[in-house]
Amino acid sequence: MSETLTLPSPAKLNRMLHIVGQRSDGYHELQTLFQFLDYGDTLHFTPRADDRITLTPPLEGVDTEHNLIVRAARLLQNACNVTCGVDIRLDKQLPMGGGLGGGSSNAATTLLALDRLWNLGLSNDYLATLGLSLGADVPVFIRGFAAWGESIGERLIPAQLDAPWFVVIHPGIGVATQTVFSHPELTRNSAPISMARAVEGGRNDCERVVRMLQPAIGDALDWLDQFGSAMLTGTGACVFCALTNRAQADSILHRLREEKNEGRYRDWQAFVARGCNTSPLHTALEECRSNMMS
């Protein structure tokens, strides 16, 4: 019986996001700080003797062949002329279209898992370049370190960020990234800043437009802002607030549950997580290597 490899597929937050320009190809030039969370999806990979790639369960509204997990597996299979396949099972926790990088994280976990499972021995540089064709956020999940990101977000420099606890709220609606980036009122000319300045604090240039497009996200930002400095991650829909300790975060979550029981914010989903400067995926992979050597 084939051994199944189980790995996390963590969420990320954009601790700030400035848009400093727009390229001739339509892509936006960004400056952002990526940080991982100790919360996310889980993927299970079981090798097959044939070349089939399967994914269960199917995600509602997403054709399986278009799922980034399957696309990542086929991309690697074709790039390296792999003749074996894999059965993949996804335990989904992250909301789709939430700005937490769920699809990109799934793709990165798939590339790193199959590199190991298929004994390819590829470098992270190669996998990050391959992953970029699937999405601009895939490389940061491949690299596995909190990072200062520039260009479209793929030019990465390691960043040492504080690692507070976070409350993350998804208001129960989605945001189309393309709609935000094509909006005529989106700020596209923020002055570039240094990484050191960004670490001290920044804003998300998408927030004003997202508030206009989806007032419910503005409601979540305003509610969370009473406990600290609330911010949008990516283009949303998720919003977050950094807290000093777990007890503070749990208290806010408890407050939200009480208000939901009173009939308010019924569509909101929330969780508590810790910030990580090393991806939980890479921690798990290192544990796998250590176990093999012991």
Write up this protein.
This protein has about 290 residues and is α+β, with helices and mostly antiparallel strands. It folds into two domains: about 5-160, Ribosomal Protein S5, domain 2 (2-Layer Sandwich), CATH 3.30.230.10; about 165-275, GHMP kinase, C-terminal domain (Alpha-Beta Plaits, 2-Layer Sandwich), CATH 3.30.70.890. It contains ten helices and ten strands. It has helices at about 70-80, 100-115, 125-130, 140-145, 175-180, 195-200, 205-215, 215-225, 245-260, 280-294; strands at about 5-20, 30-50, 55, 85-90, 145-150, 155-160, 165-170, 230, 240-245, 270-275. Strands 1, 2, 3, 4, 5, 6, 7, 8, 9 and 10 form a ten-stranded mixed beta sheet that branches. Helix 1 packs parallel to helix 2 (about 100-115), helix 2 (about 100-115) packs across helix 3 (about 125-130) and helix 7 (about 205-215) crosses helix 8 (about 215-225). The two termini are about 25 Å apart.
- What is the N-to-C order of secondary-structure elements (H for helix, E for strand)? EEEHEHHHEEEHHHHEEHEH
User: What is the mean predicted local confidence, pLDDT?
Assistant: 95
User: What name is given to the CATH topology of the largest domain?
Assistant: Ribosomal Protein S5, domain 2
Tell me the structural class: alpha+beta
Contiguous helical run count: 10
The radius of gyration over CA amounts to: 19 Å
Q: Which regions are unreliable across 5 or more consecutive residues at pLDDT < 50?
A: none
Strand content bin: 25-35%
Integer count of domains: 2
- What is the CA–CA distance across the termini? 23 Å
Named CATH architecture of the largest domain: 2-Layer Sandwich
**Oligomer description:** single chain
Task: Give me the count of strands.
Answer: 10
What percent of residues adopt helix (DSSP H or I)?
25-40%
CATH structural class of the largest domain: Alpha Beta
Shape from CA axes?
A: globular
Instruction: State the major sheet.
Output: 10 strands, mixed
